[in-house]
Each structure stands twice: as structure tokens, then as C-alpha cells.
Design a protein that fits this description.
Layout (H helix, E strand, L loop, with lengths): L6 H16 L7 H10 L3 H8 L4 H6 L5 H16 L4 H12 L3 H6 L10 H16 L7 H9 L5 H8 L4 H15 L1
Helix pairs in contact: 1-2, 2-9, 2-10, 3-9, 3-11, 8-9, 9-11
């Protein structure tokens, strides 16, 4: 399915799967794909960063599964009772190994998560965007357009909550992918 995807776009899907697992979700959704796109260098990450988004902030805006949220709260409470400041540990780990390093290590999983309907639709729209632009490969920019062009999914709500102008973001990523071609 992903043979026409550029390597960074493929890795964004892998990252999205990890984000869904980290959030305790049962499916990969558009909001997880958005995190995967921001984590991988390319036109989508560049456009999202230009819109003022950072991975940690965006991650904090995405709902967690019920089990995962309760577990994370209990873990943080347990660490505090031992005198460990989880935020300080997270900052130090991010500084030493890059943003989100602590989460990447803690949540490696082998289980296969399916794509939600909106995530599948965004991948189909990414393909349509590449074809419409007469481009042979699907980049992370096409994937971001696939998310934006749905007009209704949780990723768009997260972007709006973060203060992103969706139309400007779309125009920026479209400019970036056409310039790269």
C-alpha cells in the first residue's frame, strides 16, 4: 500500500502508529498522523512548524485513551511520592535525546493498529493530491493535505484549538510540495 510513499512519509505513518499506541488508542487516527508528520522532516513538518506548532504541545492537545490517561496519572503520582519530578525528567530527556524521547522508549509496541475511517480517507486524499499535482510519489505534504481536505476530523479540531489558520496551512504546504517537485 505504501510503495508510492516517500521514505519520510512512510516513517510518519510508523510514527503515527506509535503515537496511537502511546495515547492508548485502538486505531490510528488523523490526529496521530498529524503527530507523525510533525515528527518527520519534510514539507508537512516545515509547514506545521511555520504555523507555530511543536510536537510536545500538539501531543498534549490530543485525547488519550481512558486506560492510558488513568495509567499515566497514576504513574506520575507514584513518581511524585518517591520524590521524582516527572516534568524535570522529561525536560532533561528531551534536551539530551530530542523531543518525545522518553515517550518513544516507553511505548514501543508490536501490536498492529488498524487505521480509522478518517485516517484511511486522508491517505486516499493524499494519493489524489499527488495525482492532481502530477507527482509520482506521495510526500508528507500530500498526507497533510489529505488530512486538511477532509474538512472534519479530530486533527483539524486540534489544529484549530492550537490557533492554526487551516487555509493558510494548506496554502503553505501546497506551495512547499510544488516547489520541491
Amino acid at each position: 500500500m505504501f510503495e508510492r510513499f516517500q521514505p519520510a512519509a512512510r516513517q510518519a505513518v510508523v510514527d503515527a502508529r506509535a503515537e496511537a499506541g502511546r495515547a492508548g488508542q485502538d486505531k490510528i487516527r488523523c490526529e496521530h498522523m498529524l503527530l507523525g508528520l510533525l515528527a518527520e522532516p519534510g514539507p508537512a513538518a516545515d509547514a506545521l512548524a511555520a504555523a507555530g506548532l511543536e510536537l510536545a504541545d500538539l501531543r498534549s492537545r490530543i485525547p488519550r485513551g481512558k486506560y492510558q490517561a488513568a495509567s499515566a496519572a497514576l504513574d506520575a503520582e507514584a513518581l511524585v511520592s518517591l520524590g521524582v519530578d516527572l516534568d524535570a525528567v522529561r525536560r532533561a530527556t528531551d534536551a539530551a535525546f530530542g523531543p518525545g524521547a522518553l515517550d518513544r522508549v516507553a511505548t514501543r509496541t508490536r501490536r498492529r493498529l488498524p487505521f480509522s475511517d478518517d485516517a484511511r480517507q486522508s491517505l486516499a486524499r493524499a494519493l489524489h493530491a499527488a495525482v492532481a499535482l502530477h507527482q509520482r510519489e506521495i510526500s508528507s505534504g500530500h498526507m497533510l493535505i489529505g488530512i486538511i481536505d477532509q474538512q472534519r476530523n479530530e486533527a483539524l479540531a486540534v489544529l484549530a484549538e492550537a490557533g492554526v489558520d487551516i487555509a493558510s496551512l494548506r496554502a503553505d504546504v501546497l506551495r512547499r510540495i510544488t516547489e520541491a517537485a
